[in-house]
Amino acid sequence: MAESKLGVLVHGAGWVSTQHIKAFETNPHTEVVAISSRKLTSCKARAAEAGLEGTGLYDNYEQALKHDGVDIVSVCTPQYLHAENTIAAAERGKHVVIEKPIANDLAEIKAMRDAVRLAGVKTIVSFVLRWNPLFETLKAMIADNAIGDPYFVETDYQHDIASWWTGYEDARKISTGVSAMITGGCHAADSLRWFAAKGEYEAANPIEVFAYSGGYRKGLSEEYDYFTSRWQEAPPLEYDDFEICLVKFSNGVLGKVSVNYGCIMPYTFPIEIFGNRGSIKDNRIWSHKYPGQNGWVEIPAILPDSADVTHHPFQGQMDHFVDCILSDRESHCNLEDAIKTHEIAFAALQCYETGQPVQLPLLSG
């Protein structure tokens, strides 16, 4: 008898859902059995694009959760819905993929954590860059002592977030987007944690944050569209477009992370890692393991140099998650771990109010 597959409900039928569907359909142990969204037309479009037949299509999430054979729910809705969607899935005993950011405030995050703990389901958060080929190579090299012990890490999310993005209307508002660091910069905050830990599948624990915010776009009804290289009218951001945080980790590593929505240039994601036996700048390395080195060694790998979701390694993320479910183990990128990344962003918001360093963790227990 053929092994039964894990059934997947993809909830939310926007841009990123296309890659969730593709990854789960490609994995030999899963199949997409249902798609739900606010509009049935969007569900039908996603199913047609993926060549799915007989897939349940819903414009009601509660009904979709009752679809026969759903084992995994992939939450691809706007960020302000992630908490309630995750809690609903966990309460019904479903394993959950959670797109980032996971939630818009600490109360939501605590409710999510409590629901997942009570249900005992597996989770993974889409900090998908952990499966980027360059990230995987660098982590393996760091674990192999190529740069010795890291002592300073710098990561930056530089992306002209604007109305070209279909999610911009929600993201630009304080009520639904909250801040630049939460909406997009959390990718860089997670990468900072990832490279600040020496273990190959380990992320460092932040214990203190100090931050500044600024930039120029808040309240401005004009934006730069780097696809067309033109300035145009657009609804304004309701929060600062630039944030920079200094982070101290429990292992003694120091870090700097920034998010920049105002940059007049294409998307970039710079990485710098300094250790007591070598250094890394993006895909270039200087290491004590290369005696006689007189120039940077360049690693031929796929860089995190595109914001297009088709460029992101969702296949690696979903394959890892499915393996975690089948082998009954927790992911290194589960909800509990992702909370530590998000706390950097929420600590920054507290710092803007007090002007003082913020101690972590923010959530007890």
Write out key terms for the chains shown.
Rossmann fold; nine-stranded mixed beta sheet; 11 helices; 2 domains; globular; six-stranded parallel beta sheet; Dihydrodipicolinate Reductase, domain 2
Structure overview:
This protein is of the alpha/beta class and 365 residues long. The chain has 2 domains: 6-127 and 317-333, Rossmann fold (3-Layer(aba) Sandwich); 129-312 and 341-359, Dihydrodipicolinate Reductase, domain 2 (2-Layer Sandwich). The chain has helices at residues 17-26, 40-50, 61-65, 82-91, 106-119, 133-143, 168-171, 174-177, 180-196, 314-327, 335-354, and strands spanning 6-11, 30-36, 56-58, 70-75, 95-98, 123-125, 150-158, 206-214, 222-225, 230-233, 242-249, 254-260, 271-275, 278-281, 284-287, 297-298, 358-359. The strands form 3 sheets. It has a 9-stranded mixed beta sheet, covered by helices on one side. Strands 3-2-1-4-5-6 form a 6-stranded parallel beta sheet, sandwiched between helices. The chain has a two-stranded antiparallel ribbon with strand order 9-10. Strand 5 (95-98), helix 5 (106-119) and strand 6 (123-125) form a beta-alpha-beta unit. The model has no long low-confidence stretch (mean pLDDT 96).
Question: Helix segment count?
Answer: 11
CATH architecture title of the largest domain: 2-Layer Sandwich
Mean pLDDT over the full residue set? 96
How much is the radius of gyration in Å?
20 Å
Overall helicity: 25-40%
Structural class: alpha/beta
CATH-assigned homologous superfamily of the largest domain: Dihydrodipicolinate Reductase, domain 2
Tell me about the largest β-sheet: 9 strands, mixed
First CA to last CA: what distance?
45 Å
Low-confidence stretches: none
List the secondary-structure elements in sequence, H or E: EHEHEHEHEHEHEHHHEEEEEEEEEHHE
Strand order of the largest sheet: 16-15-14-13-7-12-11-8-17
